[in-house]
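Fold this sequence, please.
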Amino acid sequence: MSSEEHIQETDTEARFEFKKEEASAFQTEKGLTEETIRVISEDKDEPEWMLERRLRALEQFQQMPMPDWPGQPDLSEVDLNEIVPYIRPDIETRGGAENWEDLPEEIQDTFDKLGIPEAEKNALSGVGAQYESEIVYQNMQERWEDKGVIFCDMDKAVQEHEEILKEYFMTKAVPPSDNKFAALHGAIWSGGSFVYVPEDTTVDMPVQAYFRMNSEGMGQFEHTLIIAEENSEVHYIEGCSAPKYSAFNLHSGGVEVFVKEGAHVQYSTVQNWSKNTYNLNTKRAIAEKDATMEWVSGSMGSKATMLYPSTILKGPGATDNHITIAFAGEGQDIDTGAKVYHNAPNTKSTVESKSISKDGGRTNYRGLIHIADGAEDSSTAVECDALMFDNDSTSDTMPYMEIEESKVDVAHEATVGKIGDEDIFYLQSRGLDDDDAKQMIVAGFIEPITEELPIEYAVELNRLIELEMEGSLG
């Protein structure tokens, strides 16, 4: 490795691994009680209807069992009595500042190191930044605001767009009854982004939200709600990270996307959680007639991940595409996949899943394709490719196909393999050393993911993979 490459690696690693001394204005006690829910809602000055929804979700959470699926990650260490569910950082502007300079110095420094202000200047139409439980910065370019595009934090949306929130917030896409962690999320959600794109409006630059957990032993529960009206288009990018800690952290976000007739939404995620984080999210989209939903995700870090972005193809001609990559190193269990419900005729879906495991890590593709009776002339194609570095690592595939209609086209393909010695030898014969040869093979393996991301994020994803391969992160 050249000195220049070493400096680049050190700089990239430092972007994610640094941590700040905790400085909060307010935080709840550990654990989850009705009193905790009331304290969170009161601190946010929420309307009564939101408090009522939180309390109903808490009741559902308390009644529901923990997930118990074949081959799932071990969740026995997830003790919610040891989690601090809500930390409000020490900032003057509730709902997020409009200028980076208005943030406390330590928070400015955090997002400077993560490169968010630079990305905003060069590649984005809007940015939201969440630190602990609250959005601390939110900004949208004026030209999009003039067209009626809304990009604000969820707390502000509850106050200023109440009727929309009443209709869409955890009522249609991700109800609290969906699963235990969706119910948990409904009870103690905080922060996140609200995106509304009016009819016939194309936002031609991505909007991004970045979620940062800084404190040890906390939970982050941001909620993202995206509504794309008829014939509109938007690309939303989610970035997540946390520094190393010994105590476990919990990330249990919720994402709801509504893609109206003829609209197009791409939702991209680049996640790099620390190796003590349990990443247990629920993400779902509802696509109307001739709408297109695209999920692009790269999952690195975390001790355990259970993440299965889901789309309900509700209208005829709707399309859903998933491209995912998961990386598992020592002590990691990354359980990811996709769910697609074909509920209308002439709907189409594709799922392309890539996974890499090394040093005893485990990856698993868990997916569901459901084609309802009457969804004729629908088609789906699922492709799962797994790459393993050694005999200690494992990779599993658990595809479920529920086909209730005969006039459909269904394809599934899965491959699992190790990096071949002959491939390494060939590249070494061309002058590459062993590490560079492996990195080149992996770069080619994940290319379908990186080519779907803006260049800045594709470079970052490749670099994160390289650091994982070298054991530099976590």
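The mean pLDDT is 80. The first strand starts at residue 24 and ends at 27.
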